[in-house]
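From: lab user (bench 3)
To: helpdesk
Subject: output format question, protein + adenosine-5'-diphosphate

Hello, I'm new to running complex predictions and I'm not sure whether the block I got back is the full result or only part of it. Here's what I submitted:
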Amino acid sequence: MEKDSKLEENELCAASHLALDIGGSLLKMVYFTRNSSRSFDQEADGSSMNGLTTSNDDLHHSLLDGRLHFYRIETSKISECIDFISSKLLQRSGHQCNGASIDDKNIIKATGGGAFKFTNLFKEKLGATLDKVDEMDSLVSGANCLLKTVHQEAFTYIEGRKEYVQIDQKDLYPYLLVNIGSGVSMIKVDGNTKFQRVSGTSIGGGTFWGLGKLLTKCKSFDELLELSREGNNRVIDMLVGDIYGGMDYSKIGLTSTAIASSFGKPVSDSKELQDYKSEDIARSLLRMISNNIGQIAYLNALQFGLKRIFFGGFFIRGHPYTMDTISVAVDFWSKGEAKAMFLRHEGFLGAMGAFLSYEKSGLPDAAQQLLQ
Ligand code: ADP
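Helpdesk reply: Thanks, we reran it on our side. This is the complete output you should expect:
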């Protein structure tokens, strides 16, 4: 399990309100612990999603009593997650903790397709009931909560520069939420619980990882992402200059370096797959998918008159080239009118929303503050 912080034994005793988002690729987990003397932002580490800080002083004060934990693991390793829950979070007879349990009735809030797919597994292995929370509801409520309460949740990323965006709680809506998971959902958000999934594309994070796995020898998503840092997409993509003998097609605003056709170069090369460097393939793939999503997102924002576009989902993984490509696509197609914004808790929106659905069944006081 990749985790935000080391779970101390005394914190285990107070773990509560476990929520899961079991997606096509990754399982995300959020839970609350009391009794931690540390604030949310200690041990902050971008790669591990820690650092839930807020701009609200009262909230920050209340949360000194507790801590939200964010974990993720590949869905294919769900048994490791079940072992983790079983050994660390579930109430066990003879255990020293007072009242340490996910829930007295072993109910776990769960969203994502896996909440349906793995119902029996959780029942068999943990005796736990997955209380299903709708995926889109969770995504939206998670995003709204994070955007409203977490200081420095949203940021732009332009030419390697990250700039945090101040969100005015009273002026958040409407916006377009683009969640790039295995697939991509585009949701027009008009209010706390008012939204519509207006579009999406099946060419998303799963496509990048799936195609990347087939075309390179990468064994993990991180390896593929890392490889893309070293690559040169011009070896794989057909550029305007390749077609126009090195010249721009300036009449319609295309420079010679603009991509005319992603993965178009091999058409005229007499090369086999093994003649291409994996780095270059990874780079072109990442660029193609990020560019495409950025373009579709902008067209939807345009169609629905939305000025703000927030991108989330674990495809992004805070990767500079991914964010840069999406930002450039939005900037290019909007002629500089729109800016892409990214979320610090990018892949945890759904899990956060499922966690917040405990509201009705009594979140701890400190976590309740998140909802205000
Ligand atoms: P889902 O709910 O569909 O699993 P996520 O927001 O969790 O969606 O994003 C899944 C995507 O994140 C994958 O398709 C892949 O592109 C990317 N990803 C990031 N880290 C990993 C990882 N460690 N293993 C697999 N995919 C990963």
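A quick orientation on your result: Residues 23-26, 74, 112, 181-182, 205-206, 208-209, 221-222, 313-315, 317, 347 surround adenosine-5'-diphosphate (CB under 6 Å). Let us know if anything else is unclear.
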